[in-house]
Amino acid sequence: MTVRVNLDHELQSFVEQQVSRSCHQTVAAYLESLVRDAMIRSNGEIPADRNDSDQSEAPWQIALDVGSQVPDRAWEQVPQDLARNLDHYLYGSPREG
Q: Residue 84 — very low, low, confident or very high, per pLDDT cuts 50/70/90?
């Protein structure tokens, strides 16, 4: 099935940005993955035609996808030494270097 979708400029820019940041090579592939995800959520199950490679996204890709949804202003609030001093921020232990 072919579907034509007219998006306003803001939505079109968002979709193009998501495609450039994700593993999807085309807008059609990105939109198809969104529809598949919506189908999974509405059915509570994985469609039979979805193969294992579709289900197992690399962990680094998942992190990039999630991180791309965080607004820039929120990233500005993340401490610069978070990785080095994670225990300090989580548990209050003394900071390193």
A: very high
